[in-house]
Amino acid sequence: MLSAIEAETKIRSLISPLSQRDPATTIEVVPLSQALGRILAQAISSDLAFPHWDNSAMDGYAVRYADVGQASTANPVSLAIVERIPAGQVPQRSLQPGETARIFTGSMLPPGADTIVPQEDVDAHEHHILVNAAPRQLGAFVRRQGEYYQSGDPLLKAGLRLSASDLGILAAAQCRQIPVYRSLRVGLFSTGNELVPLANPAPLAPGKLIDSNQVALEATLHSIGITPVLLGIVPDDPVVLQETIAAHLPHLDVLISSGGVSMGDYDYIDRILLGLGAEFAVRSVAVKPGKPLTVAKLPAQSGGTLYFGLPGNPVSALVSFWRFVQPALEALSGWVDLPQRRVTGYTTLPLQGDQKREVYLWGRVAWHPPQGEKPEGYWFTPASGSKSSGNLIHLSQVNALAVLPAGERSLAAGAPLSLWCLAVP
Prior knowledge:
By secondary structure, the protein is α/β, with parallel strands linked by helices.
Protein backbone atom coordinates (compact mmCIF):
# COMPACT_ATOMS: atom_id res chain seq x y z
CA MET A 1 0.00 0.00 0.00
CA LEU A 2 1.12 3.53 -0.77
CA SER A 3 0.83 6.31 1.77
CA ALA A 4 -1.67 9.06 0.95
CA ILE A 5 1.15 11.47 0.07
CA GLU A 6 2.81 8.90 -2.17
CA ALA A 7 -0.48 8.24 -3.95
CA GLU A 8 -1.09 11.95 -4.36
CA THR A 9 2.39 12.43 -5.85
CA LYS A 10 1.99 9.55 -8.30
CA ILE A 11 -1.41 10.82 -9.42
CA ARG A 12 0.02 14.27 -9.99
CA SER A 13 2.74 12.79 -12.21
CA LEU A 14 0.08 11.40 -14.56
CA ILE A 15 -1.72 14.69 -15.08
CA SER A 16 -1.34 16.61 -18.32
CA PRO A 17 -3.33 19.82 -17.75
CA LEU A 18 -5.40 21.26 -20.59
CA SER A 19 -3.19 24.35 -20.33
CA GLN A 20 -0.21 22.32 -21.55
CA ARG A 21 -1.93 20.81 -24.58
CA ASP A 22 -2.62 22.06 -28.11
CA PRO A 23 -4.78 25.23 -27.76
CA ALA A 24 -6.64 24.26 -30.91
CA THR A 25 -8.13 21.28 -29.07
CA THR A 26 -8.49 22.70 -25.58
CA ILE A 27 -9.69 26.31 -25.87
CA GLU A 28 -13.17 27.47 -26.78
CA VAL A 29 -14.85 30.87 -26.71
CA VAL A 30 -18.12 31.25 -24.82
CA PRO A 31 -20.44 34.19 -24.13
CA LEU A 32 -19.80 35.94 -20.83
CA SER A 33 -23.14 34.68 -19.54
CA GLN A 34 -21.86 31.09 -19.85
CA ALA A 35 -18.40 31.63 -18.35
CA LEU A 36 -19.18 31.23 -14.63
CA GLY A 37 -17.02 28.49 -13.14
CA ARG A 38 -15.01 27.99 -16.33
CA ILE A 39 -11.21 28.19 -16.40
CA LEU A 40 -9.88 31.28 -18.19
CA ALA A 41 -7.57 30.08 -20.96
CA GLN A 42 -5.88 33.36 -21.91
CA ALA A 43 -4.93 36.46 -19.96
CA ILE A 44 -7.38 39.34 -20.42
CA SER A 45 -6.43 43.01 -20.70
CA SER A 46 -8.58 46.05 -21.47
CA ASP A 47 -8.24 49.25 -23.45
CA LEU A 48 -10.19 51.00 -20.70
CA ALA A 49 -8.66 52.49 -17.58
CA PHE A 50 -10.51 52.05 -14.27
CA PRO A 51 -11.89 54.52 -13.32
CA HIS A 52 -12.40 55.64 -16.90
CA TRP A 53 -12.08 59.29 -15.84
CA ASP A 54 -11.57 61.34 -12.66
CA ASN A 55 -14.81 61.11 -10.66
CA SER A 56 -16.32 61.82 -7.30
CA ALA A 57 -16.54 59.27 -4.49
CA MET A 58 -19.14 61.38 -2.61
CA ASP A 59 -22.21 63.48 -3.07
CA GLY A 60 -20.95 67.01 -2.54
CA TYR A 61 -19.13 69.81 -4.34
CA ALA A 62 -16.15 69.83 -6.66
CA VAL A 63 -13.69 72.51 -5.58
CA ARG A 64 -10.14 73.78 -5.94
CA TYR A 65 -8.20 72.80 -2.81
CA ALA A 66 -6.41 76.14 -2.91
CA ASP A 67 -9.77 77.85 -2.31
CA VAL A 68 -10.87 75.80 0.70
CA GLY A 69 -7.70 74.49 2.36
CA GLN A 70 -8.10 76.90 5.28
CA ALA A 71 -11.90 76.76 5.66
CA SER A 72 -13.39 76.33 9.13
CA THR A 73 -16.59 76.99 11.03
CA ALA A 74 -15.12 80.24 12.27
CA ASN A 75 -13.85 81.16 8.83
CA PRO A 76 -16.18 79.63 6.18
CA VAL A 77 -15.31 80.01 2.50
CA SER A 78 -17.98 81.16 0.05
CA LEU A 79 -17.95 79.62 -3.44
CA ALA A 80 -20.26 80.33 -6.38
CA ILE A 81 -22.18 77.33 -7.77
CA VAL A 82 -21.56 77.41 -11.53
CA GLU A 83 -22.69 73.95 -12.62
CA ARG A 84 -24.61 70.86 -11.59
CA ILE A 85 -23.10 67.56 -12.80
CA PRO A 86 -25.30 64.44 -12.44
CA ALA A 87 -23.69 61.02 -12.97
CA GLY A 88 -23.43 60.30 -16.68
CA GLN A 89 -23.20 63.96 -17.73
CA VAL A 90 -20.02 65.53 -19.11
CA PRO A 91 -18.97 68.79 -17.35
CA GLN A 92 -19.51 71.84 -19.52
CA ARG A 93 -16.92 74.22 -18.09
CA SER A 94 -13.72 74.45 -16.07
CA LEU A 95 -13.75 75.69 -12.49
CA GLN A 96 -12.17 79.07 -11.86
CA PRO A 97 -10.97 80.42 -8.50
CA GLY A 98 -13.93 81.01 -6.18
CA GLU A 99 -16.22 78.56 -8.05
CA THR A 100 -17.71 75.14 -7.30
CA ALA A 101 -19.83 72.53 -9.09
CA ARG A 102 -22.56 70.44 -7.47
CA ILE A 103 -21.47 66.82 -7.99
CA PHE A 104 -22.69 63.31 -7.15
CA THR A 105 -21.12 59.91 -6.53
CA GLY A 106 -19.65 58.69 -9.80
CA SER A 107 -19.96 62.05 -11.57
CA MET A 108 -17.08 63.23 -13.76
CA LEU A 109 -14.80 65.78 -12.15
CA PRO A 110 -14.84 69.10 -14.02
CA PRO A 111 -11.52 70.50 -15.30
CA GLY A 112 -9.90 72.74 -12.71
CA ALA A 113 -11.35 70.84 -9.74
CA ASP A 114 -9.03 68.69 -7.64
CA THR A 115 -10.98 67.91 -4.45
CA ILE A 116 -14.49 67.00 -3.28
CA VAL A 117 -16.14 68.59 -0.25
CA PRO A 118 -18.91 66.32 1.14
CA GLN A 119 -22.31 67.97 1.23
CA GLU A 120 -22.50 67.65 5.01
CA ASP A 121 -19.51 70.01 5.35
CA VAL A 122 -21.23 72.94 3.63
CA ASP A 123 -24.16 75.28 4.07
CA ALA A 124 -25.85 75.22 0.66
CA HIS A 125 -27.73 78.17 -0.79
CA GLU A 126 -29.35 78.69 -4.18
CA HIS A 127 -26.32 80.14 -5.93
CA HIS A 128 -23.44 79.61 -3.51
CA ILE A 129 -22.16 77.46 -0.67
CA LEU A 130 -20.29 78.11 2.54
CA VAL A 131 -17.55 75.55 3.21
CA ASN A 132 -17.32 75.05 6.98
CA ALA A 133 -14.49 72.53 7.15
CA ALA A 134 -11.26 72.15 5.20
CA PRO A 135 -10.92 68.91 3.23
CA ARG A 136 -8.64 66.40 4.91
CA GLN A 137 -6.17 66.67 2.02
CA LEU A 138 -5.71 67.70 -1.58
CA GLY A 139 -7.62 65.23 -3.76
CA ALA A 140 -9.98 64.15 -0.99
CA PHE A 141 -12.83 61.92 -2.28
CA VAL A 142 -11.54 62.03 -5.86
CA ARG A 143 -11.14 58.72 -7.72
CA ARG A 144 -8.43 59.33 -10.31
CA GLN A 145 -8.50 57.91 -13.82
CA GLY A 146 -6.55 54.63 -13.88
CA GLU A 147 -6.27 54.51 -10.09
CA TYR A 148 -7.53 50.89 -10.00
CA TYR A 149 -6.27 49.67 -13.34
CA GLN A 150 -4.16 51.10 -16.19
CA SER A 151 -5.30 50.29 -19.72
CA GLY A 152 -3.24 47.59 -21.38
CA ASP A 153 -2.11 45.97 -18.13
CA PRO A 154 -3.15 42.37 -17.38
CA LEU A 155 -6.67 42.43 -15.99
CA LEU A 156 -7.28 38.72 -15.26
CA LYS A 157 -4.59 36.06 -15.62
CA ALA A 158 -4.99 32.75 -17.40
CA GLY A 159 -5.85 29.77 -15.22
CA LEU A 160 -8.44 31.47 -13.02
CA ARG A 161 -11.70 29.70 -12.29
CA LEU A 162 -14.07 32.53 -13.12
CA SER A 163 -16.20 33.73 -10.22
CA ALA A 164 -19.24 36.01 -10.22
CA SER A 165 -17.02 39.00 -9.39
CA ASP A 166 -14.68 38.07 -12.24
CA LEU A 167 -17.65 38.16 -14.63
CA GLY A 168 -18.51 41.62 -13.32
CA ILE A 169 -14.95 42.78 -14.06
CA LEU A 170 -15.09 41.33 -17.57
CA ALA A 171 -18.45 43.00 -18.20
CA ALA A 172 -17.11 46.36 -17.04
CA ALA A 173 -14.20 45.88 -19.44
CA GLN A 174 -16.66 45.20 -22.29
CA CYS A 175 -15.48 41.60 -22.72
CA ARG A 176 -18.40 39.75 -24.28
CA GLN A 177 -16.72 36.57 -25.55
CA ILE A 178 -14.41 34.74 -23.16
CA PRO A 179 -11.65 32.21 -24.02
CA VAL A 180 -11.91 29.25 -21.64
CA TYR A 181 -10.62 25.72 -21.53
CA ARG A 182 -13.12 23.17 -22.74
CA SER A 183 -14.93 21.18 -20.09
CA LEU A 184 -13.30 17.94 -19.08
CA ARG A 185 -14.86 14.84 -20.62
CA VAL A 186 -15.44 12.57 -17.63
CA GLY A 187 -17.22 9.23 -17.80
CA LEU A 188 -18.85 7.64 -14.75
CA PHE A 189 -20.22 4.17 -14.11
CA SER A 190 -20.88 1.76 -11.26
CA THR A 191 -20.21 -1.94 -11.27
CA GLY A 192 -21.99 -4.66 -9.33
CA ASN A 193 -24.68 -7.28 -9.91
CA GLU A 194 -26.43 -6.13 -6.76
CA LEU A 195 -27.03 -2.57 -8.02
CA VAL A 196 -30.33 -1.19 -9.25
CA PRO A 197 -30.78 2.28 -10.82
CA LEU A 198 -32.85 4.77 -8.89
CA ALA A 199 -35.14 5.14 -11.91
CA ASN A 200 -36.23 1.50 -11.63
CA PRO A 201 -39.87 1.69 -10.45
CA ALA A 202 -40.01 -1.90 -9.13
CA PRO A 203 -39.81 -2.55 -5.38
CA LEU A 204 -36.28 -3.24 -4.21
CA ALA A 205 -35.73 -7.01 -4.26
CA PRO A 206 -33.85 -8.82 -1.47
CA GLY A 207 -30.09 -8.57 -1.93
CA LYS A 208 -30.35 -5.54 -4.22
CA LEU A 209 -29.11 -2.00 -3.56
CA ILE A 210 -29.88 1.36 -5.15
CA ASP A 211 -26.85 2.73 -7.00
CA SER A 212 -26.38 5.74 -4.72
CA ASN A 213 -22.69 6.07 -5.67
CA GLN A 214 -23.44 7.21 -9.19
CA VAL A 215 -25.97 9.77 -7.94
CA ALA A 216 -23.58 11.19 -5.31
CA LEU A 217 -20.55 11.21 -7.60
CA GLU A 218 -22.49 12.79 -10.46
CA ALA A 219 -23.65 15.57 -8.12
CA THR A 220 -20.12 16.08 -6.81
CA LEU A 221 -18.78 16.40 -10.36
CA HIS A 222 -21.47 18.95 -11.17
CA SER A 223 -20.45 20.92 -8.07
CA ILE A 224 -16.94 21.39 -9.52
CA GLY A 225 -18.17 22.35 -12.97
CA ILE A 226 -18.09 18.97 -14.72
CA THR A 227 -21.06 17.39 -16.47
CA PRO A 228 -20.17 13.69 -16.61
CA VAL A 229 -21.01 11.16 -19.28
CA LEU A 230 -23.20 8.70 -17.37
CA LEU A 231 -22.56 5.09 -18.38
CA GLY A 232 -24.97 3.51 -15.91
CA ILE A 233 -24.48 0.22 -14.10
CA VAL A 234 -22.19 -2.42 -15.58
CA PRO A 235 -22.59 -5.98 -14.29
CA ASP A 236 -19.75 -7.99 -12.75
CA ASP A 237 -19.02 -9.58 -16.09
CA PRO A 238 -15.44 -9.22 -17.37
CA VAL A 239 -16.52 -9.27 -21.02
CA VAL A 240 -19.15 -6.55 -20.58
CA LEU A 241 -16.83 -4.49 -18.39
CA GLN A 242 -14.00 -4.73 -20.91
CA GLU A 243 -16.30 -3.75 -23.78
CA THR A 244 -17.72 -0.78 -21.84
CA ILE A 245 -14.32 0.55 -20.80
CA ALA A 246 -12.66 0.06 -24.19
CA ALA A 247 -15.56 1.62 -26.09
CA HIS A 248 -15.50 4.88 -24.13
CA LEU A 249 -11.79 5.43 -23.48
CA PRO A 250 -11.03 7.23 -26.78
CA HIS A 251 -13.69 9.86 -26.11
CA LEU A 252 -12.87 10.74 -22.49
CA ASP A 253 -10.21 12.58 -20.53
CA VAL A 254 -11.09 10.66 -17.37
CA LEU A 255 -13.10 7.52 -16.63
CA ILE A 256 -14.33 6.92 -13.07
CA SER A 257 -15.89 3.72 -11.79
CA SER A 258 -17.02 2.62 -8.35
CA GLY A 259 -16.71 -0.98 -7.24
CA GLY A 260 -14.71 -3.88 -8.60
CA VAL A 261 -11.23 -2.78 -7.48
CA SER A 262 -10.73 -4.88 -4.36
CA MET A 263 -9.42 -8.47 -4.16
CA GLY A 264 -12.70 -10.36 -4.49
CA ASP A 265 -13.68 -13.00 -7.02
CA TYR A 266 -15.81 -10.46 -8.90
CA ASP A 267 -13.36 -7.57 -8.88
CA TYR A 268 -12.27 -7.41 -12.53
CA ILE A 269 -11.30 -3.76 -13.11
CA ASP A 270 -7.53 -4.05 -12.59
CA ARG A 271 -7.07 -7.10 -14.79
CA ILE A 272 -9.13 -5.44 -17.58
CA LEU A 273 -7.00 -2.30 -17.41
CA LEU A 274 -3.86 -4.42 -17.45
CA GLY A 275 -5.10 -6.12 -20.60
CA LEU A 276 -5.67 -2.72 -22.20
CA GLY A 277 -2.05 -1.74 -21.55
CA ALA A 278 -2.68 0.65 -18.70
CA GLU A 279 0.17 2.11 -16.65
CA PHE A 280 -0.77 1.73 -12.99
CA ALA A 281 0.17 4.48 -10.54
CA VAL A 282 -1.90 3.34 -7.55
CA ARG A 283 -3.40 -0.04 -6.62
CA SER A 284 -4.15 0.54 -2.92
CA VAL A 285 -3.56 3.29 -0.36
CA ALA A 286 -2.91 3.06 3.38
CA VAL A 287 -5.99 5.08 4.29
CA LYS A 288 -9.23 4.34 6.10
CA PRO A 289 -11.78 4.35 4.57
CA GLY A 290 -10.76 3.81 0.95
CA LYS A 291 -7.84 1.35 0.86
CA PRO A 292 -8.80 -0.13 -2.57
CA LEU A 293 -8.05 2.59 -5.13
CA THR A 294 -6.95 2.08 -8.70
CA VAL A 295 -5.35 4.92 -10.62
CA ALA A 296 -4.02 4.19 -14.08
CA LYS A 297 -3.29 5.86 -17.37
CA LEU A 298 -4.22 4.23 -20.64
CA PRO A 299 -1.78 4.25 -23.56
CA ALA A 300 -1.99 6.96 -26.21
CA GLN A 301 -3.59 4.61 -28.74
CA SER A 302 -6.46 4.15 -26.30
CA GLY A 303 -6.82 7.91 -25.82
CA GLY A 304 -4.38 8.42 -22.95
CA THR A 305 -7.37 8.45 -20.61
CA LEU A 306 -6.84 8.73 -16.86
CA TYR A 307 -8.72 6.01 -14.96
CA PHE A 308 -9.90 6.18 -11.34
CA GLY A 309 -11.35 2.99 -9.88
CA LEU A 310 -13.04 3.87 -6.59
CA PRO A 311 -14.13 1.43 -3.90
CA GLY A 312 -17.75 0.31 -3.94
CA ASN A 313 -18.65 1.15 -0.34
CA PRO A 314 -20.41 4.53 -0.49
CA VAL A 315 -18.35 6.32 2.17
CA SER A 316 -15.11 4.96 0.75
CA ALA A 317 -16.12 6.05 -2.75
CA LEU A 318 -16.86 9.63 -1.72
CA VAL A 319 -13.89 10.01 0.62
CA SER A 320 -11.55 8.66 -2.08
CA PHE A 321 -13.06 11.07 -4.60
CA TRP A 322 -12.72 14.07 -2.28
CA ARG A 323 -9.16 13.23 -1.27
CA PHE A 324 -7.61 12.01 -4.52
CA VAL A 325 -9.83 12.46 -7.57
CA GLN A 326 -11.17 15.98 -7.14
CA PRO A 327 -7.70 17.62 -6.79
CA ALA A 328 -6.58 15.72 -9.90
CA LEU A 329 -9.57 16.89 -11.93
CA GLU A 330 -9.04 20.50 -10.82
CA ALA A 331 -5.39 20.38 -11.89
CA LEU A 332 -6.27 18.65 -15.16
CA SER A 333 -8.81 21.36 -16.00
CA GLY A 334 -6.09 24.03 -16.27
CA TRP A 335 -6.96 25.72 -12.96
CA VAL A 336 -3.73 27.38 -11.76
CA ASP A 337 -4.46 28.72 -8.27
CA LEU A 338 -5.79 25.45 -6.90
CA PRO A 339 -7.73 25.72 -3.63
CA GLN A 340 -5.85 24.82 -0.48
CA ARG A 341 -8.26 22.57 1.36
CA ARG A 342 -5.95 21.41 4.14
CA VAL A 343 -6.17 23.61 7.24
CA THR A 344 -5.25 23.20 10.89
CA GLY A 345 -8.01 23.14 13.46
CA TYR A 346 -9.18 21.53 16.70
CA THR A 347 -11.52 18.69 17.55
CA THR A 348 -14.51 19.19 19.80
CA LEU A 349 -14.67 15.47 20.70
CA PRO A 350 -12.14 12.65 21.17
CA LEU A 351 -11.18 10.90 17.91
CA GLN A 352 -9.87 7.39 17.24
CA GLY A 353 -7.16 6.65 14.68
CA ASP A 354 -5.41 3.54 13.36
CA GLN A 355 -1.97 2.05 13.88
CA LYS A 356 -1.24 1.33 10.20
CA ARG A 357 -3.43 3.61 8.08
CA GLU A 358 -4.17 7.32 7.78
CA VAL A 359 -7.75 7.78 8.99
CA TYR A 360 -10.36 10.19 7.62
CA LEU A 361 -13.26 10.97 9.94
CA TRP A 362 -16.14 12.88 8.42
CA GLY A 363 -18.01 15.70 10.12
CA ARG A 364 -18.50 19.44 10.14
CA VAL A 365 -16.03 22.26 10.63
CA ALA A 366 -16.81 25.86 11.55
CA TRP A 367 -14.79 28.89 12.58
CA HIS A 368 -15.29 29.91 16.20
CA PRO A 369 -13.97 32.92 18.14
CA PRO A 370 -12.07 32.33 21.39
CA GLN A 371 -14.33 31.03 24.14
CA GLY A 372 -13.00 30.35 27.60
CA GLU A 373 -9.94 28.15 27.20
CA LYS A 374 -10.81 27.35 23.57
CA PRO A 375 -8.61 29.23 21.08
CA GLU A 376 -9.96 30.92 17.99
CA GLY A 377 -9.91 28.71 14.91
CA TYR A 378 -11.56 25.94 12.93
CA TRP A 379 -13.36 23.47 15.19
CA PHE A 380 -14.30 20.02 13.91
CA THR A 381 -17.22 17.96 15.18
CA PRO A 382 -17.38 14.38 13.90
CA ALA A 383 -20.64 13.06 12.48
CA SER A 384 -22.68 10.85 14.74
CA GLY A 385 -23.24 7.16 14.14
CA SER A 386 -21.02 4.30 13.02
CA LYS A 387 -17.79 5.10 11.20
CA SER A 388 -18.36 2.15 8.85
CA SER A 389 -17.44 2.69 5.19
CA GLY A 390 -20.95 1.50 4.34
CA ASN A 391 -22.71 4.08 6.53
CA LEU A 392 -23.83 6.59 3.91
CA ILE A 393 -26.61 7.91 6.19
CA HIS A 394 -24.28 9.82 8.51
CA LEU A 395 -22.53 11.64 5.66
CA SER A 396 -25.41 14.10 5.62
CA GLN A 397 -24.19 17.74 5.60
CA VAL A 398 -20.53 16.90 6.22
CA ASN A 399 -18.12 19.58 5.01
CA ALA A 400 -14.73 18.32 6.21
CA LEU A 401 -12.59 15.32 7.01
CA ALA A 402 -10.42 15.08 10.10
CA VAL A 403 -7.06 13.58 9.08
CA LEU A 404 -5.36 11.35 11.66
CA PRO A 405 -1.89 10.17 10.56
CA ALA A 406 -1.04 6.47 10.69
CA GLY A 407 -0.01 5.57 14.20
CA GLU A 408 -2.14 8.33 15.79
CA ARG A 409 -4.30 6.02 17.90
CA SER A 410 -6.39 8.74 19.54
CA LEU A 411 -6.84 12.48 19.92
CA ALA A 412 -8.30 14.15 22.99
CA ALA A 413 -11.01 16.78 22.76
CA GLY A 414 -9.44 20.18 22.11
CA ALA A 415 -6.35 18.72 20.44
CA PRO A 416 -5.07 20.33 17.22
CA LEU A 417 -5.40 18.31 14.03
CA SER A 418 -5.24 18.50 10.26
CA LEU A 419 -8.52 19.02 8.38
CA TRP A 420 -9.39 18.40 4.74
CA CYS A 421 -12.17 20.85 3.85
CA LEU A 422 -14.57 19.71 1.15
CA ALA A 423 -15.34 23.33 0.34
CA VAL A 424 -12.66 26.00 0.59
CA PRO A 425 -13.18 27.74 3.98
